[in-house]
Write a structure and sequence with these properties.
The chain is an alpha/beta fold and about 1000 residues long. The chain folds into 5 domains: about 280 residues, Uridine Diphospho-n-acetylenolpyruvylglucosamine Reductase, domain 3 (2-Layer Sandwich); about 130 residues, Alpha-Beta Plaits; about 140 residues, no CATH class; about 40 residues, no CATH class; about 260 residues, no CATH class. About 45% of the residues lie in helices and about 10% in strands. It is built from 48 helices and 26 strands. Strands 12, 13, 14, 15, 16, 17, 18 and 19 form an 8-stranded antiparallel beta sheet that branches. The protein has a 5-stranded antiparallel beta sheet with strand order 5-6-10-8-9. It is globular and about 95 Å long. It starts with 9 loop residues before the first helix and ends with a helix. The N terminus is likely disordered.
């Protein structure tokens, strides 16, 4: 929604006019002046927040040409454009108060792979991991390794000249760029590559922007070669913005790409790139060296480099402890055993070796381990080491290291480690002394901090913990930065060693000294009107100013406008730091299905957190307390509130503007799968704050009928199950489905099985769990008893699966009992009926806790409903929340009971498709399934797939059907339809099984059904 023209400022009207001119042209991309897109693109992974005037998503190079040509017209030369890729920058590089030009949504195709010559040609929006997945079958990879590799775009990597782990071996992005296709601000586009002097002379004679650029850049290099040689430091990183030091290649060829790489979108739009790629090392290993002191780890890194590893990464105890409390630790814990002395580990050096043969790898690792074994004195501070062999094991550890970047933002309390001085670079031999002084600067201010980085390159990421909502703490940004600038100068280093200048460019004039006017001259040549990402790296005129670190609005300044009570009440979304983990490209990863299905940044956890923060801020500015409003909403009756809600709804239909409608549109795209809760390093929990938002939103507007149908289904279904022929008769005919879609907004509603659970239990002599029935158990029965907690979906829509599970438990020697059905309430929570949910939780918990007092364990079959007891229930009930285990968590502890019965089953191999909520919020339970299968003589392989797209009732809602099926097609469709998977697949989620049946007519059994079939 776009505010009425009378509500816009003169500046906004200028930008709306520009957007309208684009709309009237042949521009094919998306034009978004709405407040939601502007809000979401106002932040990146930095401390800053700058509201743009609109967001543009070009589709083609032609779109970029149209955009820049229009901006070059005299009437639009005040229009500011800010190129943006993955938005993972830590210094505000892609933030602008003009128009964000996001190339990642559409321009994300791999155009050509040349295996023989080892190069690729890609569009700028291609994600690094996406590229490497395409290259992997050819045994090739794109080398610069980033912690943000699953969402960082190639265009963004080029614009920041990104590097990372292994840069001492593989170099930076610039070292692998063969050719760039750039669109300049006058609409001209150019493919730049190293050229000899004859070619340079020819190009320099052109009378357009291309010719002027080549003349100017070459003249700067020719006239100032000695100054450039003296001023630019000889460091592995040496990230300076416009890299004048490499305008000429070692062979003497002119290379315009040297100034385009690292230019942060201030010179032109990188549209495509031709990149050099390398052979993947065939084998790899990690030596994890532990230390009793972090400083010892830093000092020892220089010594370890003598053993010639591929890379050395250093991690401190704070980062390590955060990883230990995250789901990622389940995959790496075996590689980090406790120290033999029992002393806490204060630092780790991760020393990587790669090779093309096992023999070479073993010899390389032996060089280091021999060195470690020979130097066992305590002076080094070492506390032993462990080995991780093989690419799979090494990849798991690097994944932990990557995630640790975001985990730092999940520290307890309001003061969170933040990036603003965290990518300094000094000569490696100076690193330990530099960091000692760096830490002293933070210690004297009483700040805590986390540290990790690339000790081999002299780069360490130090993130001080500061509550940016506190003006006194925010004021520390300036003195700390100034002190660190002085320190890097003392130790012959750089303030911007890896993550770019952005807002910190204010230190460039001092650093470059008499060379800085040449940077300004270069900027003026490319961008004379200062339209491209202004205020960063250099200004085109001396009278124009660079941005300053304390002159730009920060997120904390906006967040402090939210009342403390409200901030705490919506804490599930308030601490998002913009790390962008939810923008994960990989379709086989559960995070975040709505983003993958729509490619809308407003439909990501980061986007939704940004929107709800802005919504709460706007309420606070109107003296509206969202927590108090929610309490009032719960107290109001339907009838008394109906007139005002009807009035507001009619106003909505007349397109009267309300920002909450844009927030609502974003929230309704959420599948409530809770993958964000488990996978976001900050633990952003969209389903929780979404429910709070919906409760308040529907306190002002009328709810759709589908919400009442979904929320009341658990209550209605026991009665409906007595007349399944009536319910199914109404739901099955196509004309009734059409009516349901139009009236209730529901499609493909599931049908009742018609199987009476009561009768089936009587036939099997399985009892309902009650005090009397439990007391009637023999001691042997009681010792082997387990209580199955029902859920509405499996009990009434998949009854045979429940019965098969009970049959299997019986055959395995257990005594299953069934808890009488009570509504769980999760559908109520999902749709924001928080008052009714709390009542349902209290009633159901009382019932289950009474059963639990018998000492017999409670287990559930459906992951999302079962996990609600340890999530949504705990938030309402605290310690009174019942303990209900996932069925596999309990079974995995019954090895003594299972293993003697393995001979009853025919050995076989199966493939598990795990439920999103289960594998992201109870990660260890997936291994439990494998343990259960192994105990019964079966092999269970876990298939990497993303979300199935159903997520409870999401896929049955008419407005979501298209996206639901698209999400399914991203990963599930291929797996389900592979001929070799026939008869091998098993799925834990009810919604997953029903989605596969709905779309592909595939009947995928539950793991317990698979085991039963093998008996």
């Amino acid at each position: 929604m776009i505010p009425s023209i009378r509500h816009t400022s003169p500046v906004q009207r200028r930008y709306l006019a520009f957007i309208e001119a684009l709309r009237q042209s042949d521009f094919q991309g998306d034009l978004n002046p709405d407040y939601a897109n502007r809000t979401v693109l106002a932040t990146d992974n930095s401390i800053y927040q700058i509201l743009p005037q609109g967001v543009i998503y070009p589709k083609t190079v032609d779109d970029l040409v149209i955009l820049t040509t229009l901006s070059h017209q005299p009437e639009f030369r005040d229009i500011v454009l800010g190129p943006r890729g993955g938005g993972t920058g830590t210094n505000g590089q892609s933030l602008t108060d003009g128009l964000v030009v996001d190339t990642s949504k559409h321009m994300n195709h791999i155009l050509e792979i040349n295996v023989e010559e080892r190069w690729v040609r890609v569009q700028c929006g291609v994600v690094k991991d996406q590229l490497n997945q395409a290259l992997k079958p050819h045994g090739l990879f794109f080398a610069p390794e980033l912690s943000t590799s699953n969402r960082a775009t190639i265009g963004g990597m080029i614009n920041t000249d990104a590097s990372g782990q292994g840069s001492c071996r593989y170099g930076k992005t610039r070292d692998h760029v063969l050719e760039l296709h750039t669109v300049f601000l006058d609409g001209s586009d150019w493919r730049s590559r190293p050229m000899d002097d004859a070619e340079l002379t020819e190009v320099s004679q052109r009378e357009d922007r291309v010719g002027e650029v080549h003349r100017t850049v070459n003249q700067i290099y020719t006239d100032h070669a000695e100054q450039i040689e003296a001023r630019f430091p000889k460091l592995n990183r040496c990230l300076t913005g416009y890299d004048l030091a490499h305008i000429r290649t070692p062979e003497g060829r002119f290379d315009l790409n040297s100034v385009l790489c690292g230019s942060e979108g201030t010179l032109g739009f990188i549209a495509e790139a031709k990149l050099n790629v390398l052979p993947i090392p065939k084998v790899s290993a990690l030596v994890n060296v532990n230390y009793k002191d972090f400083n010892a780890a830093l000092r020892d890194a220089t010594e370890l480099m003598k053993a010639e590893p591929t890379s050395i990464e250093t991690v401190d105890s704070k980062v390590l402890n955060l990883a230990m409390n995250d789901i990622v630790w389940h995959s790496v814990s075996e590689f980090f055993p406790p120290s033999s002395s029992g002393e806490p580990i204060q630092g780790i050096n991760l020393v990587e070796y790669t090779a093309d043969t096992e023999t070479d790898l073993e010899a390389a690792v032996k060089r280091l381990t021999d060195q470690l074994d020979a130097e066992q004195d305590t002076s080094s501070g070492r506390m032993g080491y462990s080995l991780a062999w093989g690419s799979e094991s090494v990849a798991k550890i690097w994944a932990m290291r990557k995630k640790s970047v975001g985990l730092l933002g999940n520290a307890e309390g309001e003061a969170r480690p933040i990036p603003f001085v965290e990518d300094t670079a000094v000569p490696p031999e100076n690193l330990a002394d530099f960091i000692m002084e760096f830490r002293a600067a933070l210690d004297k201010r009483g700040l805590t901090y986390g540290m990790f980085g690339h000790a081999d390159a002299g780069v360490l990421h130090v993130r001080p913990a500061i509550d940016m909502k506190d003006p006194e703490q925010e004021a520390l940004i300036r003195p700390i930065t100034d002190e660190v600038v002085a320190l890097v100068k003392k130790y012959n280093g750089l303030l911007w060693g890896e993550h770019g200048k952005g807002v910190r460019a204010e230190y460039a004039p001092e650093f470059f000294g008499e060379l800085y006017p040449q940077l300004q001259r270069l900027k003026a040549c490319f961008d004379p009107n200062n339209q491209l990402n202004p205020g960063k790296i250099a200004t085109p005129k001396a009278e124009l100013e660079l941005l300053t670190i304390d002159g730009v609005t920060t997120r904390g300044q906006q967040d402090r406008k939210i009342p403390v009570q409200v901030w705490e009440g919506y804490s599930e979304g308030m601490h998002c730091n913009g790390n962008g983990q939810c923008h994960n490209w990989n379709p086989n990863d559960a995070m975040c299905p709505s983003w993958k299905g729509t490619r809308l940044r407003t439909h990501t956890p980061k986007g939704r957190a940004s929107l709800v923060r802005e919504w709460l801020k706007q309420l606070g500015e109107r003296d509206v307390n969202a927590i108090e409003e929610s309490e009032a909403t719960r107290k109001q009756s339907f009838l008394t509130s109906f007139p005002s809600r009807l009035k507001n709804t009619l106003a909505k239909r007349r397109d009267e503007y309300d920002f909450s409608h844009e927030v609502h549109e974003s929230m309704m795209g959420c599948l409530a799968c809770k993958s964000c809760t488990g996978q976001c390093p900050i633990k952003v929990d969209v389903p929780s704050f979404r429910s709070k938002f919906l409760e308040l939103y529907y306190g002002r507007y009328l709810r759709p009928l589908k919400d009442y149908f979904i929320g009341g289904l658990e209550y209605m279904v026991p009665t409906l199950a007595r007349v399944p022929w009536l319910y199914n008769g109404l739901m099955k005919p196509r004309f009734m489905q059409a009516i349901m879609a139009k009236v209730a907004g529901m499609v493909d509603s599931p049908l009742l099985t018609g199987v009476s659970l009561d009768n089936a239990l009587q036939e099997r002599r399985i009892r309902y769990a009650s005090t009397a029935n439990i007391d009637a158990l023999t001691q042997e029965e009681r010792d082997n008893a387990v209580i199955l907690v029902q859920d509405a979906f499996t009990s009434y829509f998949e009854t045979q699966m429940v019965l098969d599970s009970l049959d299997l438990l019986t055959k395995l020697g257990f005594t299953p009992l069934v808890a009488p059905f009570k509504p769980n309430g999760k559908p109520l929570h999902v749709h924001g009926f928080l008052g009714p949910f709390a009542k349902a939780a209290v009633k159901n918990a009382g019932h289950l806790n009474e059963l639990a007092r018998s000492g017999i364990p409670l287990v559930g079959l459906e992951p999302s409903m079962t996990l609600a007891y340890r999530s949504e229930y705990q938030k309402v009930l605290g310690k009174e929340a019942p303990e209900v285990a996932l069925i596999q968590e309990w079974l995995a502890q019954q090895g003594e009971q299972l293993e003697p019965r393995k001979d009853l089953l025919e050995p076989n191999t199966f493939a598990l498709l795990a439920h999103c909520t289960e594998k992201t919020n109870a990660a260890a339970s997936i291994k439990d399934w494998q343990s259960v299968f192994a105990a019964l003589g079966q092999k269970l392989e876990v298939v990497d797939v993303g979300c199935c797209g159903m997520a409870g009732t999401y896929g049955h809602e008419a407005s979501n059907v298209e996206t639901s099926k698209k999400i399914y097609g991203l990963s599930w469709a291929d797996v389900v339809n592979k001929p070799e998977n026939a008869g091998k697949l098993t799925a834990t989620g009810y919604s997953c099984r029903s989605q596969a049946k709905r779309i592909d007519s595939a009947s995928i059994p539950h793991p317990l059904q698979v085991l039963l079939a093998q008996m």
